[in-house]
Design goal:
The protein is of the alpha+beta class. Helix content is 30%, strand content 23%. InterPro entries: HypE (IPR011854), PurM-like_C_dom (IPR010918), PurM-like_C_sf (IPR036676), PurM-like_N (IPR016188), PurM-like_N_sf (IPR036921).
C-alpha cells in the first residue's frame, strides 16, 4: 500500500506514479463508466486509490458490509448509492433498490437489518410527483423488509448536474452470536448454492432502457433477502460465505470470493438456473448470463455436511424456491473460477472488466 505521503505530489496534487502497485489506474487518468461496474476496474480503484487514502483494518475486508464490535454487540454496517436509469422499471424502482440493496448487504454478513438512513439528491426541475413516487416506494419496501428509516438528508443540484433522483442508503443490523460469514471463509469441499434464476434484473433494465422486446415480459427480481438468510441460519450458523451477485453478476461474486479465500471454484454451467427469457435475450444481445446483474438472489458457500439441509430450507422459502447446487469449492487453481460446459469442456470465468450495462443499481 502507498502511504499518505505518496498519494500526493507537490502542492497537494495527486501523484499517480506513487499509487499502490500494481498500477492499472495509470491507464485511466480520468474516471470511466467501468470504474462503477463492480468488476476489475472497480476493484483497482478501491485497492489502489481509496484503501490507501483511508487506511484502517476494518476496510481491508472489503465485504458487502463491515462487521463491528460495539458495546458488547456485533453490528453489520453498510452504505450504498443508487443511480439506476430508468427510475422505474418492471418489478421495482430506485426506491425498492435503495432499501433492498442495503438490506441484502447487511444480510450477507448474517445480520438482521434494523435501521436505514436515506439521502435524496434531487436535480433541479424534477417533478415533485416523481420524488413522491420514489419516496412512497422506498417506504413500502422498508416496511416489507422490516426495517425503519431512522434518519435522512436532501440535497438539490442544478439542472443538468444530475439525473432526476439519486439515492444513498446506509444500514445497521445485529449479527447473531456464533455467526461468522465472510468471503475469506470459503473452504475446499464447500458446496456452492444459488438461490434462484439469475439475470432477471439486468435484462429487465435493459429491455426498458433500450426499448427492446423479447417476446415475453421480464421483471426484476428485486427483493429483500434477510428472511431467507434467517431461514438458512436456522439450519446452521456455520454458513461460510454469502454474497448477493449484483453488479457483475454471478461471475463477479464467485471471482471475488475465490480471490479473497485463495481457493478454486468449479461451476457446472448446466446447473446454473437461467430462465428461458434471460437466455434468449442474452443470445440476441451477445451477453453471458453469468455476468448479468441480479437484485434478489444470493450465492452461498456451505459446508458439505450442511448443504442438503440448507438447500431444503432455501427451497421452502418463497425467495429460494428455485435454489440449486451449481458447484463446489476446490483446492486446485486457487483464486480462479472454472465453469464446466454442457459439451464436456471447461472455461475460466474471469472477473468482468467493467459492466455490461452501466447504471444498473
Amino acid at each position: 500500500m502507498a502511504d499518505t505521503e505518496t498519494l500526493t505530489g507537490t502542492g497537494g496534487a495527486p501523484d499517480i506514479l506513487g499509487w499502490s502497485c500494481p498500477l492499472p489506474l495509470r491507464d485511466h487518468p480520468r474516471v470511466v463508466m467501468g470504474h462503477g461496474g463492480g468488476g476489475v476496474l472497480s476493484a483497482e480503484l478501491v485497492a489502489n486509490l481509496f484503501a490507501p487514502a483511508y487506511g484502517g483494518p476494518l476496510l481491508a475486508g472489503l465485504g458487502d458490509s463491515a462487521v463491528l464490535e460495539l458495546g458488547g454487540a456485533t453490528l453489520a454496517f453498510s452504505t450504498d448509492s443508487y443511480v439506476v436509469r430508468p427510475l422505474f422499471f418492471p418489478g421495482g424502482s430506485i426506491g425498492d433498490l435503495a432499501v433492498n440493496g442495503t438490506v441484502n448487504d447487511l444480510a450477507m454478513s448474517g445480520a438482521r437489518p434494523a435501521y436505514l438512513s436515506c439521502g435524496f439528491i434531487l436535480e433541479e426541475g424534477v417533478e415533485t410527483a416523481v420524488v413522491a413516487r420514489v419516496a412512497h416506494a422506498l417506504g413500502a419496501a422498508a416496511r416489507a423488509a422490516g426495517v425503519e428509516i431512522a434518519t435522512g438528508d436532501t440535497k438539490v443540484v442544478e439542472a443538468g448536474h444530475g439525473d432526476g433522483v439519486y439515492l444513498n442508503t446506509a444500514g445497521i443490523g445485529l449479527v447473531p452470536a456464533g455467526v461468522d460469514i465472510r468471503p475469506q471463509r470459503a473452504t475446499p469441499g464447500d458446496v456452492v448454492i444459488v438461490s434462484g434464476e439469475i439475470g432477471l434484473h439486468g435484462i429487465a433494465i435493459m429491455s426498458v432502457r433500450e426499448g427492446l422486446e423479447f417476446g415475453v415480459g421480464i421483471e426484476s427480481d428485486c427483493a429483500a433477502l434477510a428472511d431467507l438468510v434467517a431461514a438458512m441460519l436456522a439450519v446452521t450458523p456455520d454458513l461460510h460465505v454469502l454474497r448477493d451477485p449484483t453488479r457483475g453478476g454471478l461471475a463477479a461474486a464467485l471471482g471475488e470470493i475465490a480471490a479473497a479465500a485463495q481457493v478454486g471454484v468449479v461451476v457446472s454451467e448446466r446447473a446454473v438456473p437461467v430462465p428461458p427469457q434471460v437466455a434468449n435475450a442474452c443470445a440476441v444481445l451477445g451477453l453471458d448470463p453469468l455476468y448479468v446483474a441480479n437484485e434478489g438472489k444470493l450465492v452461498a458457500f456451505v459446508p458439505r455436511e450442511h448443504a442438503d439441509a440448507v438447500l431444503a430450507a432455501m427451497r421452502a422459502h418463497p425467495l429460494g424456491a428455485r435454489s440449486a447446487v451449481i458447484g463446489e469449492c476446490v483446492a486446485e487453481h486457487p483464486g480462479t473460477v472454472v465453469c464446466r460446459t454442457p459439451f464436456g469442456g471447461t472455461r475460466v470465468i474471469d472477473l468482468p472488466m467493467g459492466e455490461q450495462l452501466p447504471r444498473i443499481c
